[in-house]
């Protein structure tokens, strides 16, 4: 027969999975910041470029063309270096995000499969079968217990309800 | 010896002129050939084709990317749409801006932009040529020209859809997609919750719980017209773009998506109703106030 709080366990698991999904992007950006070691170098390059541009703006091109041109070349060289750096950082971020997503989806799939395996023959809850007529067989799938609510039906229902709840919450939290 | 020298000089002169003549002929042949080739592409026959009267418009329905259109689609209306060739230059320039919005802010040198711009320029030049050559339309043959026009219009639509997809991609990548809750949707959800509680407390002993739910959904169908209708922005996804390009009219796609959305709403109501019912049932069992 159904365990007392099986329905709550399934609901909690679905809730947890959806909550993790919401924070996936934050988690991946945090991880990429931790892995990335040369973030200061990028800041230094940006500061350097900014300083050089300010210096260049104070030089008159007509009067000190050589110095102006030399500064321009330095700015271009540093800008190219910065672009390469940004490109590699972006690629690394994308890779980390991809890995985090893959791990999450594997974990989620494993959790769902384990729940289905555990409650394959036990319904998560039981109600009188006449209450859920005429679809009692569909609702009870795969347990076959009359009046029982099967794990698959309950997973679908919980998933939908939790998603709705998160959407309402997100909509209210947005300005 | 002198006569031999003279003869050789004459032979050289004649061979030069023959070479020059051959070069000239080759050049003319190439020029003529290119024109012939282009004429064959646009449908001009070499010997003069049949005179078909006024230039024919394409009979196939055109794509239209206005997914918010609500008037019924008909082939006659498609032929009355403005010609795709009219605002070519402005459309192409706008296309070249919208088609590659993701490249505008890129720090990287845009090597592919000149290629795409060149392709679009060629298409535009071809369109201009078609437009200019359409006026003396006596010698135009119908089907190759129509085929080219269809190809160009599909290419145009594909570029526009690509631009729309690219512009909508950053919003989708920005996080979890949230559905919009208009007042009627909120009313439906709240109604489902309240009905589930009511049914669990008073009704479930007498009949199936799905009967009141079906009644509620029928009531919602009647009540929907009393709520302000919120126009939902149709998102261009890869699926809708593929369906559009495959020839399915946008109106059909709109109606299918509308039906699918309504089915989704009913499913959401059902899930929330059943969830609330089970939750109430478990809470009542926990409290021990009622035995089924």
From TrEMBL, chain A:
Protein family according to the UniProt entry: Belongs to the WRB/GET1 family.
Keyword match Coiled coil: yes
Membrane topology: Multi-pass membrane protein
PANTHER family per record: GUIDED ENTRY OF TAIL-ANCHORED PROTEINS FACTOR 1, TAIL-ANCHORED PROTEIN INSERTION RECEPTOR WRB
Major subcellular site: endoplasmic reticulum
Record GO biological process: tail-anchored membrane protein insertion into ER membrane
GO cellular component annotations of the record: endoplasmic reticulum membrane
UniProt keywords, alphabetically: Coiled coil, Endoplasmic reticulum, Membrane, Transmembrane, Transmembrane helix
Name of this chain's protein: Guided entry of tail-anchored proteins factor 1
Keyword flag Transmembrane helix: yes
Compartment(s) of residence: Endoplasmic reticulum membrane
Residue ranges of the TM segments: 6-24, 98-120, 140-162
Gene3D superfamilies listed in its UniProt record: Helix hairpin bin
Pfam families given in the database record: CHD5
Domain of life of the native organism: Eukaryota
InterPro entries: Get1, Helix_hairpin_bin_sf
Automatic annotation (TrEMBL), chain B:
GO cellular component: endoplasmic reticulum membrane
Subcellular location: Endoplasmic reticulum membrane
Chief location of this protein within or outside the cell: endoplasmic reticulum
Segments for region (Disordered): 1-32, 67-114, 128-147
Function: Required for the post-translational delivery of tail-anchored (TA) proteins to the endoplasmic reticulum. Together with GET1/WRB, acts as a membrane receptor for soluble GET3/TRC40, which recognizes and selectively binds the transmembrane domain of TA proteins in the cytosol. Required for the stability of GET1. Stimulates calcium signaling in T cells through its involvement in elevation of intracellular calcium. Essential for the survival of peripheral follicular B cells.
Residues spanning the membrane: 193-216, 236-254, 266-286
Keyword annotations from UniProtKB, A to Z: Membrane, Transmembrane, Transmembrane helix
Protein name: Guided entry of tail-anchored proteins factor
Organism domain of life: Eukaryota
Low complexity biased stretches: 72-96
Pfam families associated with the record: Get2_like
InterPro entries: CAMLG
């Amino acid at each position: 027969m159904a365990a007392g709080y099986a329905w709550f366990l399934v609901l909690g698991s679905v809730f947890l999975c959806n909550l993790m999904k919401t924070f996936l992007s934050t988690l991946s950006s945090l991880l990429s910041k931790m892995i990335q070691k040369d973030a200061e170098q990028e800041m230094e390059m940006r500061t350097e470029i900014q300083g050089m541009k300010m210096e260049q703006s104070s030089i008159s091109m007509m009067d000190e063309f050589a110095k102006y041109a030399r500064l321009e070349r330095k700015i271009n060289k540093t800008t190219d270096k910065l672009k390469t750096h940004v490109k590699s950082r972006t690629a690394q971020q994308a890779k980390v995000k991809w890995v985090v997503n893959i791990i999450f989806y594997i974990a989620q799939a494993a959790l769902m499969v384990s729940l289905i395996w555990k409650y394959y023959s036990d319904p998560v809850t039981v109600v009188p079968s006449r209450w859920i007529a005429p679809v009692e067989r569909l609702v009870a799938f795969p347990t076959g217990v009359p009046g029982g609510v099967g794990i698959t039906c309950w997973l679908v229902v919980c998933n939908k309800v939790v998603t709705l709840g998160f959407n309402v919450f997100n909509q209210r939290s947005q300005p | 010896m002198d006569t031999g020298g003279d003869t050789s000089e004459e032979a050289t002169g004649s061979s030069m002129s023959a070479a020059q003549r051959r070069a000239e002929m080759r050049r003319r042949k190439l020029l003529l050939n290119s024109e012939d080739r282009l004429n064959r592409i646009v449908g001009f026959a070499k010997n003069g084709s049949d005179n078909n009267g006024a230039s024919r418009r394409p009979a196939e329905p055109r794509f239209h990317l206005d997914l918010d259109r609500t008037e019924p689609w008909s082939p006659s209306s498609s032929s009355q749409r403005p010609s795709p060739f009219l605002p070519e230059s402005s459309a192409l320039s706008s296309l070249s801006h919208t088609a590659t919005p993701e490249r505008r802010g890129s720090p990287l040198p845009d090597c592919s932009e000149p290629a795409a711009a060149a392709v679009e320029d060629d298409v535009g030049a071809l369109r201009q040529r078609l437009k200019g050559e359409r006026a003396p339309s006596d010698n135009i043959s119908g089907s190759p020209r129509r085929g080219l026009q269809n190809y160009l219009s599909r290419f145009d639509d594909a570029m526009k859809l690509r631009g729309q997809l690219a512009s909508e991609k950053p919003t989708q990548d920005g996080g979890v997609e949230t559905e919009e809750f208009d007042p009627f949707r909120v009313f439906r959800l709240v109604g489902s919750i309240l009905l589930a509680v009511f049914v669990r407390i008073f009704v479930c002993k007498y009949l199936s719980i799905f009967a009141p739910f079906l009644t509620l959904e029928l009531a919602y169908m009647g009540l929907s017209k009393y709520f302000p209708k919120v126009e939902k922005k149709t998102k261009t996804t890869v699926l809708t773009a593929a369906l559009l390009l495959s020839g399915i009219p946008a109106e059909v796609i709109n109606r299918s998506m509308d039906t699918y959305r309504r089915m989704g709403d009913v499913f959401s109501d059902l899930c929330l109703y059943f969830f609330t019912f089970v939750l109430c049932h478990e809470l009542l069992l926990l409290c021990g106030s009622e035995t089924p």
